Structures are given as structure tokens and as C-alpha cells.
Amino acid sequence: MSSIITVAAAQLGPIQKSEGREIAVARMVRLLERAYRHGAQVVVFPELALTTFFPRWYHEDLDEADRWFETALPSPETAPLFEAIRRFGLTVYLGYAEIAYEPDEAGVMRKRRFNTSVIIAPSGEVILKYRKVHLPGHAEYAPARKVQHLEKRYFEVGNLGFPVVRAPVGEAEGVNMGMMICNDRRWPEAWRVLGLQQVELVMLGYNTPSMNMENRGFEAHHLRVFHSQLSIQAGCYQNACFAVAVAKAGTEDGHEMLGHSIIVNPQGEIMAQATSWDDELIVADCNLDMCQLGRSTVFNFGLHRRVEAYSRITDQVGSVAPPTWPAR
Ligand code: CDT
């Protein structure tokens, strides 16, 4: 059995607010066809791939934002995507805004909204679902901000943890696959929870603005790219896995998105990088045997992790000040 799989990052250029799903879906189908022609078996799309990055737009009434959400997959509008997945025999990561009618933590059945991604098998079946855990931004309209980032308004915190599934991909009889969404990539805890499940391939879509819109200080554009890639490269190295990290790129209604999609190996090296601010496919061959080196040496978790020293990671949320010296 081969342990080499060919993966593709299907970066999307801008999707304007006025553009309907059929436009995005048609572009995505074209990227799937190109991925197939390049011999790819896995294709990763960005976060919230079917629409513009709508959390920059404020709606007083949450229900007014429902047009950005999916209540079912596939739907009449997304069916062409599923047909293409079956036709080309691809394993696909799709990010979208999800409305689910399900019980909450108190057991009350209600309408819930999540920032979600799924892995779709070549049969068209959804084999794994993830709901974004690290939601950035704010819940109320923020007048001081240059642009709103209302993820905390439109989405609940994901309630599925960071799951991993093993499934056949191409000639490989099983690949351990997990997901993250955008801001999750900046949190080492997310990578480690996947690493603890022997993840081999992390699929990750993002929608990162090129400029810091918080108005709390200057952050150079090149550092935004650096921080994105630093996080992904470190996550791959420290958990001995590959990542396909895929951006929305270019200018959506005047708002520039970061681009710079990358494919990273378990040494933390960038194997391929997008260079446009438009729809773009980058492809890399990933030899899954490369995951073994880190896993059996410096990051052999079973031998070297010291959980007795890590309790703050799960017992404490915010940071606390250390004791001062000299003591008074
Ligand atoms: N979509 C998303 O999660 N975006 C955030 C913006 C944070 S601003 C630093 C991200 O982490 O890219």
C-alpha cells in the first residue's frame, strides 16, 4: 500500500456580498476538476467557502443573517459540488456556516449556529464534522473598529472537540485526518489535541483580513502572513503532521483577505505556497511515512510528555501574575 497522497489547497479569491452561492460553487467545481487533473486525492477549501466573509456585516436580528447559513448539506445549491466530488473521486474539506436544530447544553432543543467544516468522502458522504472552537472577534457592534468581526455574534463555540478520523485516501488504506478553522491555528492546544490522536493530515480553512482592524496598534501586513505561517509550521513540526492551510484571498467589498495558502510537512517546511490573490490551486505529494520521525523521537508523546506539569493548561483560562521578588 502506498503511503504517498497528493493533496491540493484550493484557495478562493474574493466572493462579493452580492454574489450568490451558485457563483462560488461553480468556481469550486472548476477547482475540483483542476485538482483531479493534477492527480490530487484531497482538496481543501477555505473557511466559510460558499459566501463572502459575512461576519464583517452587522445584523441587529440574527435571523436576518440566515441567508449566509446552510441548513442541509447537500442542498440544491451545493449539490453540484457533491456531484463533482463523486465524479472526480476526491476527499474534500468544506467550510460553511451551519444552522442546526439540536438540544443545547441545558437539553433545550433550539436553532443553533456554528462555523463548521466537514470532510466529504469520494462517495459524497460526510465522514467527519468539526465546529470552530476559537471564535475571534466580538458579539456586539463595535463603533471603534474599522471593520466589524462578529463571529461571536453569529456563532456558538463549537461543541464537537477536535475529532480525528481514519479513512482511505487514494492508494493509502488509511489516513488520520483532522480539522481546524482559521483562528484555531494560532492555538497550540488545538494542534496538540489533534496530535494526541495521531493526526497525519490537518485540513484548515481560513478567512484572515490582511489588516488588523482592532484599532489598538499597528501590525504590518508581512507580520500577519508571518504569524499565520509560523503557527501552522510550528503546529506541524510539534505534532509530526502535514497541514493544508487554505485562504480566502483578495478584496471582498473593499476588504483585503490574507491569501498565502500553504502546504506544510512534518518538519515544518512549506512545500507549496499560493502566490495570487485569486482562485488558485497548489498541490504537493505527502509521504505519510514522514510523520514517523518526529513521532518516534523528539515528539514521542508516550515517552516524553509530562502531564503532571501541565495542569494549568486545562485548569486555568486567563493568565495570572507570578509572585514578585523580593516578597513583601
Ligand atoms: N476568521 C478568523 O478566525 N479570523 C481570525 C482573525 C483574527 S485577527 C488576528 C484569524 O485568526 O485569522
Automatic annotation (TrEMBL):
**Pfam families (alphabetical):** CN_hydrolase
Q: Which SUPFAM superfamilies match?
A: Carbon-nitrogen hydrolase
Asked whether the UniProt record includes Hydrolase among its keywords, one would answer yes
Q: Where is the CN hydrolase domain?
A: 5-288
Keywords of this protein's UniProt record, alphabetized? Hydrolase
User: What Gene3D superfamilies does the database record attribute to this sequence?
Assistant: Carbon-nitrogen hydrolase
Which molecular-function annotations from GO does this UniProt entry contain?
Answer: hydrolase activity, acting on carbon-nitrogen (but not peptide) bonds, in linear amides
Q: What PANTHER family does the record point to?
A: NITRILASE C965.09-RELATED
This chain's protein is named: N-carbamoyl-D-amino acid hydrolase
Q: What is the lineage of its organism?
A: Bacteria, Pseudomonadati, Pseudomonadota, Betaproteobacteria, Burkholderiales
